[in-house]
Design a protein that fits this description.
The protein is mostly beta strands. The chain is built from 10 helices and 24 strands. The chain is 15% helix and 43% strand. The strands form 5 sheets. It has a 7-stranded antiparallel β-sheet with strand order 3-2-1-23-22-21-20, with no helix packed on it. Strands 4-5-6-7-24 form a 5-stranded mixed β-sheet, with no helix packed on it. A hairpin with a 2-residue loop joins strand 16 and strand 17. The longest helix has 8 residues.
């Protein structure tokens, strides 16, 4: 058999290992004999082929293989390998307060069709990260990274390799800044994580008590500093951003309103292209933009943008999906209407399109909080077996981003990071 690189990639064997599997591990493990004596890689499989095989492994296996030999560690740690590695396995990260001991816990669930939700792993968070995540809120998820923040600090965290970096957020000057909104995304071309900060600044030329304008800033991990966006900024300064945001196909979508008034405002969506750093507006259809009796939120659903419309009185959600990426074009997919339980919050969507929901079930004078998955066709719910409260669920893919970052580093202890 020809073990040349080209013929191997087109062989039936390669087709069978295009997914992470035991066969891949066996191939790489064959480079170490039963007595534990490491054999030169070149004696068995061409190095280029080993690299292609490793790109199909789970992150956990890659971290283990870094300890096998120096060439493997150099390969896996290289910026080129990190950039081109793309995990194929989606996970759901569940952050919650345990109902028994009331401690904050993190559980990662493998999101596949065969075992869901049986493959659960409780994540051990490094003390450095735990201290910085106290009283924090999830900003967003992108390219396998999560960004959480509190009043003073943002933490960019890779749960797959248990590594994080911190970014100091500038302290708010109450006589100058009315408020701040934050967004997070990873540039798909450079894999550079970015934090977008929208400061609402009082306009000194007008009545300081009534008029503010939004001023955007961008932090890039590659530079470790804040700066103005490279692209076009917002055409209207009256826009008010919400905390509801999601990254889809290299674009950060932000739910916002036009800031024209307390009752007659319109919902809209702001796009921020993470690569070009340009802002754009997307108008929602009237049935979504002007229905003020229902709350809106946005999610990623099957690689596209979804808008959820929540009826507070009826406790039900209508799920709308953007069609073909066309602005103002949405179709209604289904309505989440639960029996015997009250839907509190839709937390996330599985890769299958099923929503993950925090629900409340009344038991006499008490009530039970739990996390469930809703099946739109059968309208049935399946309990994930995680009982607690203050749920926060985010989908993420396995990635090696941050592997080349120093441990315990905090960016922003210099003047540029403190500038408004």
């Amino acid at each position: 058999m020809d073990f040349g690189f080209g013929s191997y990639l087109s062989s039936p064997l390669t087709a069978s290992i295009c997914k992470p599997s035991i066969l891949i591990l066996n191939i790489l493990s064959s480079l170490v004999n039963p007595r534990g004596i490491r054999i030169k890689m070149s004696d068995h499989i061409p190095f280029e082929l080993q690299s292609e095989i490793m790109k199909r492994l789970h992150v956990k296996s890659l971290i283990q293989f870094r300890s096998v030999c120096k060439p493997w560690k150099s390969l896996i740690d290289s910026s080129d390998f990190i950039k081109h590695y793309s995990g194929r396995q989606q996970h759901l990260l569940v952050r919650y307060q345990d109902a028994v001991d009331h401690k904050e816990k993190y559980v990662s669930i493998v999101d596949d069709d065969d075992t869901f939700p049986m493959q659960k792993v409780t994540l051990t968070i490094p003390p450095f990260v735990v201290n910085m995540l106290k009283h924090s809120t999830t900003m967003g998820s992108s390219h396998g990274l999560l960004c959480l923040y509190n009043d003073n600090m943002a933490v960019i965290w890779n749960p797959s390799i248990s590594k994080a970096v911190a970014v100091v957020l500038s302290k708010r000057k109450y006589n100058e800044i009315w408020g701040t909104d934050l967004g997070f995304g990873v540039c798909r071309e450079t894999l550079d994580p970015k934090i977008v900060k929208i400061n609402y600044v009082f306009n000194p030329l007008i009545d300081i008590d009534s008029v503010v304008v939004c001023v955007p800033k961008v932090f890039t991990l590659s530079t470790g500093a804040w700066r103005s966006p490279y692209g076009s900024i917002l055409s209207r300064k009256s826009i008010r951003f919400s905390e509801s945001q999601v990254v889809v196909d290299g674009v950060l979508y932000w739910l916002a309103d036009d800031g024209t008034g307390e009752y007659n405002y319109n919902y809209l969506i702001i796009l921020f292209d993470i690569t070009s750093e340009e802002f754009k507006e997307v108008n929602l259809p009237d049935r979504l933009a002007r229905n003020h009796e229902r709350d809106l939120s946005i999610f990623k659903l099957r690689s596209t943008l979804a808008v959820l419309q929540f009826d507070v009185k009826e406790k039900l959600y209508d799920v709308w999906m953007m069609t073909d990426g066309v602005s103002n074009s949405f179709i209604k997919l289904f309505t989440i209407c639960l029996k015997d339980v009250a839907a509190l919050f839709v937390q996330e969507f599985r890769k299958s399109g099923e929503p993950v929901i925090g629900v409340r079930r009344t038991c006499g004078q008490h009530y039970d909080l739990s996390l469930v998955v809703y099946e739109p066709n059968s309208k049935k719910i399946n309990n994930l077996g995680i009982n607690g409260y203050y749920y926060d669920v985010n989908a993420y893919m396995e990635t090696l981003i941050l592997l080349d970052q120093p441990d315990l580093i905090i960016y922003g202890n210099t003047t540029p990071a403190f500038e408004a």
